[in-house]
Structures are given as C-alpha cells and as structure tokens.
Design a protein that fits this description.
Blueprint lengths: L4 E5 L2 E5 L30 E4 L3 E5 L7 H20 L14 E5 L14 E5 L6 E5 L6 H17 L9 H15 L11 H4 L13 H9 L2 H9 L4 H9 L5 H11 L6 H14 L5 H4 L8 E4 L2 E7 L6 E7 L2 H5 L4 E7 L5 E8 L7 E5 L5 E3 L3 E2 L6 E8 L6 E9 L56
Parallel strand pairs: 4-5, 5-7, 8-10
Antiparallel strand pairs: 1-2, 3-4, 6-7, 9-17, 10-16, 11-14, 11-15, 11-17, 12-13, 12-16
Helix pairs in contact: 1-2, 2-3, 3-5, 6-7, 6-9, 7-8
C-alpha cells in the first residue's frame, strides 16, 4: 500500500501524499476554528450542480462527470438526512437556507486550493456557511466516503457549542460517522493500528510520525464502543455534539447523569479497553487485523513494581495465564491488587469465554490510588484473560500491580470469595485495600445492530 501522510495547515486536517506540517492543536488545548483560506462566502465556480442542501462545483481547469456530481449529491442528501434523523444539528449554513458547497480544489476560476489527496472542511470569510474542498470528485466509493467524513465536520460546526470539544474527538467521531451513515464501505478501518499499536499514548497525543498523526482518526473505536455497548448508547455520542460543557468527558458524564446511569467516563473507558482486548464490537471480525499486542504475558503469581504509566487514558494491556501447575492443582481463581500512589486509575479485567466476548470487571482507584478485586475465576470457563491499566491523569505516575492465584473451591465460573475456614489465602495481594468491583463483573448494555477536517481518499488494495 502506498504510504499516506496526514498533515495540517491552518484550521483544517489534511491528508497528503507525501507532506507534513505542524498540527493545529497542541495537547490539552481546545481552540476555536480559524479562517483558513480567505474564500469569499457564496463563491460560485463556472460549473455547478445543485441539490436542495448542497452544490458540487468546479472551475474551467477541472473535470467532474455528471454521474460523479449526481452521485455525490445523492449521497450527501441521504447522509444529511441520516444525521438529522438521529438528532444532530444541520451542517453549518444549512439553517439559513445556504447550500454547503463541495469544491473541486485547484480547478481554476477562483477555486480554493488543495495540495494533497483527500479533502478538508472549513468556513467562508464571514462564517455564514461551511464548505468542503476535495482533491478529486469521482464516481467512486472513495469520493463518497471522504465526502461523508467532511459532511460530519460541517455538522459538528453547526452544533450548538462545538468548540468545547477537544480536537482529537472531532476526527475520531467524524471517522466513526462514516460507518454510521454507510456501514457497507468499511474504508475507515485502516486507521485502527495507529491506536492499537500505541495504546500507551494519551487520547490527545499527536506527533510528526504517521501513527502520531493518524492516532485521533484511529480513535473512532472509542465512540464505536460508546454507541454499541455503553449505557445510553447513541445518546452519549449525540450528547457530545448537542451539549455545552467544556470537554468531551464532562459532556458524556452529563448524559449518563441525566439518564440516571450510575457510571462515568473513567468506568466506561475501562469497559472500552476490555472490549478492545478481544475486539468485542459489532464489526469486531473486521478489526482483528489490528488486535492489541500484549505489553507482557503475566504467568502465574506476578508482581510488577514502579511501572511508568501512560498519560490521560493511555493504557497498558497485559495477558494473564495461570501456570500449568496452577491449573492442575485447581488454583484458577485470581486476586488482583493495584497501587498507583494517588487517585486517577482505572483497572479493567476482561475474561473472555471465546476470545471475542468481553466480560469486563472495572475497578477505579480510591483517593490513595489503591484498588483490588475479590478473587475472580479465570479457570476453565474462559479462553482469554486480560488486565488493562489506564491513568486518568496527565502527569507522570508509576504503579504496582500484583496477581495471585488461589484455590478454586466452587464450580467453574463462580466468583465467590472462598470460605475463610478453607485455609489461608495464597499470596500477598489480599491485604491491598481499595475499591472492589461487583464479584460478577461489569457488563455494558447489549450491543446494538469527530479542527480538523479530513479523511484520506483511499481505496481497497489487494
């Protein structure tokens, strides 16, 4: 596959082949969209095909076939209706009766420029409407998929208070939106390894490498989880763009609070990491090419100390295996003790019966950074067990983690604490205080069946 590189100029995210420039957002910042190219509002190019809410336009130096223009307009109207029906805002400009123009870049006659393969979305000089610039407009799925990504950016811009949402989530949710309106395309999935190979990075991580730039696109998998498996489902995603709190996390938390769900982003992020460990998603079979590699395989009783943690919801993924002796002697119940020294930790345990379904138990540390489980069965009922450690803080921290295996005194699958009279427990983890999960673990709601602006113009390749 040809190497593609995303870059950013001014206020729009771009994809270039090849090129590179500084990112418009720095970590931990949110700032308002800036004017990008000085394009006058209501600019009309020499060639123009219209629908009710959109136009496709190109200058005398470019070519767009009638079929490509008609197909793009039909796709945009259908996708816009899908977003509106789901409760999202109209694209910026539509409420005033303006069409959102899709320009063929560098096509002459005053057309805006584009020097990479893909598209970007921004606003005209007086902010009266959004517009999109495409490097090519063809009668092809690649054009339609990029167009849908860019359309959701226009929807984001039309939302009540969009600039309170961190930059990474603009791209994550716009990539998610490609699947939302067109589940059959699946082009968006190629971003995924930029997250799964780099789970230690903070959610808002960005650097000059290809993965460092693509990371926010690959985070489509986070809203995918929220929509499919978190309490409230799609309402959580809708609440981000229709809310007004400062940040995506407070906006999601508001939705859960208003809906009477006793949960928060940290707990749901833990459940998300558990789902990622076995790719328990509606389209999980299609995500298997990008499974998370284990940071380490913890075999038998294990103690890790002074581990430097990732920052701001970065995660360490560990596979857990009882030893052969543990299994033969019936020591297939696991006790987990965690010490992070201060508050701000999430520890997720996923026991999967088939290396697909996630059965998460999610722990949040107390004010001293401590968390522990009661013993939890990882024996014959489960094909895979993962422990995932995530930090909710932005500064450097370290943690210690211990696991011990104990006698299985109940039927396989039971998560009851062994009776005290059955003898002393093995290992030192039992003394660790902290928040203890429900013994049967956490399950999200049943599965159902995001300035910066761009998606690459990609096609399937053998």
């Amino acid at each position: 596959m040809k190497t593609l590189r995303l870059v950013s100029l001014g206020s729009a995210f771009l994809l270039a082949v090849p090129a590179q420039a500084a990112a418009p957002f720095q970590c931990d910042t949110v700032r308002r969209l800036e004017e990008r190219g000085g394009i006058p509002c209501f600019l009309q190019l020499a060639n123009r095909v219209e629908s009710e809410n959109f136009s496709v336009e190109w200058g005398p130096a470019g070519t767009v076939s009638q079929a490509a223009a008609d197909g793009l307009l039909a796709e945009l109207e259908s996708s816009r209706a899908r977003f509106m029906d789901a409760g999202y805002a109209q694209p910026a400009g539509n409420p005033a009766g303006n069409r959102v123009p899709y320009y063929l870049g560098d096509s002459g006659g005053g057309a805006p420029g584009i020097n990479f393969s893909g598209g970007y979305t921004t606003v005209c000089n007086d902010f009266s409407h959004a517009y999109v610039v495409m490097s090519s407009i063809e009668d092809a799925v690649g054009t339609l998929d990029v167009a849908n990504h860019e359309l959701f950016h226009a929807v984001q811009m039309g939302s009540p208070s969009p600039y309170g949402v961190e930059g990474f989530y603009w791209e994550a949710s716009a990539t998610w939106a490609e699947e939302f309106v067109q589940p059959d395309y699946d082009i968006y999935q190629w971003f995924l390894p930029s997250y799964t190979n780099n789970t230690t990075w903070a959610l808002d991580h960005e650097d000059g490498s290809q993965d460092g730039f693509l990371h926010k696109y690959a985070l489509f998998i986070l809203p995918m989880f929220m929509g499919e498996s978190a309490p409230g489902g799609h309402d959580v995603l809708l609440g981000v763009w229709n809310g007004d709190a400062n940040g995506v996390i407070p906006r999601m938390n508001e939705v859960w609070a208003d809906g009477g769900h006793e949960t928060d982003f940290a707990e749901q992020f833990g459940a998300f990491t558990a789902h990622v460990s076995t790719m328990d998603f509606v389209d999980g079979l299609n995500y298997d090419f990008a499974r998370v590699p284990a940071r380490d395989v913890l075999t038998g009783d294990t103690e890790l100390t002074d581990v430097i943690a990732p920052r701001w919801f970065g995660s360490h993924f560990y596979r857990v295996l009882p030893t052969d002796d543990d299994v033969l002697e019936g020591r297939t119940k696991m006790r987990v003790s965690f010490d992070g020294g201060q508050l701000g930790w999430v520890v997720a345990i996923n026991r999967s019966p088939d290396d697909r379904e996630a059965i998460p138990t999610v722990l949040q540390s107390d004010g001293e950074g401590l968390a522990s489980t009661a013993v939890i069965d990882v024996g014959s009922e489960y094909a895979r067990t993962w422990i995932v450690v995530s930090s909710t803080q932005t500064e450097n921290q370290d943690y210690s983690l211990s696991i011990t295996f104990e006698d299985q005194t109940e039927a396989p699958g039971s998560d009851l604490e062994p009776p005290e009279e059955e003898g002393p427990r093995r290992g030192g983890g039992a003394s660790c205080a902290g928040v203890t999960s429900h013994p049967f673990g956490y399950r999200g709601a049943a599965s159902l069946s995001l300035l910066l602006l761009l998606l690459p113009m990609v096609r399937r390749r053998p």
